[in-house]
Design a protein that fits this description.
The protein has about 170 residues and is an alpha+beta fold. About 10% of the residues have low confidence. A 6-stranded antiparallel beta sheet has the order 3-4-7-8-5-6, with helices on one face. The protein has a two-stranded antiparallel sheet with strand order 1-2. β3 and β4 form a beta hairpin.
Length: about 170
């Protein structure tokens, strides 16, 4: 007598985690990611609130798309309407301070416009500036030096940036 035993297995697939497309990559979204995104949003809201409190009066200041506030001082001549074009080389004189006024950096450097050599708030402010104009920027951490900071600027630091653009 021959006995055959047939074992049938049931392959149960694990449910997939929700995903979110991030450019060309797919990122798994789990509860810790959701918590981190919520914390990030709360920190950004707190930064925005701190900047609004800094403005004695928003008169003269305009909000940039990145969330920073800017006030311009036009020093260019009437006929000088030259504005920076992407990839052109310009000189920027830039002082970065804490919101309480402590000096963090004081630098003059030559940069290529829109090559991500400057904080996002500065890049956006430069778009409408002319030669010799100045800009006074109140930038939240996420539009300035971000979560990484620099050697002299701590991560998550809201800053004041005084900027002058020279051809």
């Amino acid at each position: 007598m021959v006995c055959s035993l047939l074992l049938a297995g049931c392959h149960h697939t694990q449910p997939q985690r929700p995903t979110q497309r991030n450019g060309q990559h797919t990122v798994a979204v789990d509860s810790s990611t959701i918590k981190l995104l919520e914390l990030n949003r709360q920190m950004a809201d707190a930064a925005d609130h701190a900047l609004v409190q800094m403005l004695d009066s928003p008169d003269g200041y305009n909000q940039l798309p990145c969330g920073a506030w800017v006030r311009y001082e036009r020093l260019s001549d009437e006929g000088d309407t030259l504005t920076p074009k992407p990839e052109e080389t310009w000189t920027v004189i830039m002082q970065t301070r804490t919101l309480s006024g402590d000096l963090l950096t004081d630098e003059q450097k030559t940069v290529a416009i829109h090559k991500r050599e400057l904080p996002e708030a500065v890049e956006e402010a430069i778009e409408t500036m002319h030669n010799r104009d100045k800009a006074y920027i109140l930038a939240p951490w996420y539009a300035a030096y971000g979560v990484s900071g620099t050697q002299t600027i701590e991560p998550y630091t809201n800053v004041q940036i005084n900027l002058q653009l020279l051809r």
